[in-house]
């Protein structure tokens, strides 16, 4: 270095009294000048306290409520951290799901044929949650999680399970509370279509973004329902015994495709 900072510049920088331009200039100089770095005044007590706080955070991380719950359920700490670090959009989806299901329940009890809203909403509730649970653009922590050993399909499948559990639980509770749910079939008629569409979304994610795959499947479902209604065909045929068999076959085939993809990944 052909020049060095004077003591006044170092003192004002260390005490945070230098203007922005001077501070940036001093920082740029200190990066390359060991002599000036050695002359920089330091508060040893503050420095030691800062390092102690940092070590406390790094060495003894505090577990959140979700991580503690997963730990009680036997989930390993590293896996629990990845599952707990869900995107904000996923949490917004969970709140929206509760609101939609409450609205569907209200309509079902107050309006004739009000259960139709639940019938055509429940199958895509898990699908939308899966689409918002993983991937660049929806997950702020994606850059960090993408370099972990769990990156890719393992983390995607873990997040999918984390979405499916609350989604299926909420939808099942809502279905049981529906006025028409007198039998087990009437409470879970939506389950096979929902699982098949989730499997279809995961399969398509091999070639496109997970959110796009989920959007395509959801739009396909809504278009099918709309076209059947416009053509005078009862959309409830999508839940008939014959249709349930088709959904089961589709789910089995898509599951095999996902398993093969995971093994070859």
Automatic annotation (TrEMBL):
<feature type="transmembrane region" description="Helical">
    <location>
        <begin position="236"/>
        <end position="260"/>
    </location>
</feature>
<dbReference type="InterPro" id="IPR041916">
    <property type="entry name" value="Anti_sigma_zinc_sf"/>
</dbReference>
<feature type="transmembrane region" description="Helical">
    <location>
        <begin position="88"/>
        <end position="108"/>
    </location>
</feature>
<dbReference type="InterPro" id="IPR027383">
    <property type="entry name" value="Znf_put"/>
</dbReference>
<feature type="domain" description="Putative zinc-finger">
    <location>
        <begin position="7"/>
        <end position="37"/>
    </location>
</feature>
<keyword id="KW-0472">Membrane</keyword>
<feature type="transmembrane region" description="Helical">
    <location>
        <begin position="184"/>
        <end position="205"/>
    </location>
</feature>
<keyword id="KW-0804">Transcription</keyword>
<feature type="transmembrane region" description="Helical">
    <location>
        <begin position="156"/>
        <end position="178"/>
    </location>
</feature>
<dbReference type="Pfam" id="PF13490">
    <property type="entry name" value="zf-HC2"/>
</dbReference>
<keyword id="KW-0812">Transmembrane</keyword>
<protein>
    <submittedName>
        <fullName>Zf-HC2 domain-containing protein</fullName>
    </submittedName>
</protein>
<keyword id="KW-1133">Transmembrane helix</keyword>
<feature type="transmembrane region" description="Helical">
    <location>
        <begin position="114"/>
        <end position="135"/>
    </location>
</feature>
<keyword id="KW-0805">Transcription regulation</keyword>
<feature type="transmembrane region" description="Helical">
    <location>
        <begin position="212"/>
        <end position="230"/>
    </location>
</feature>
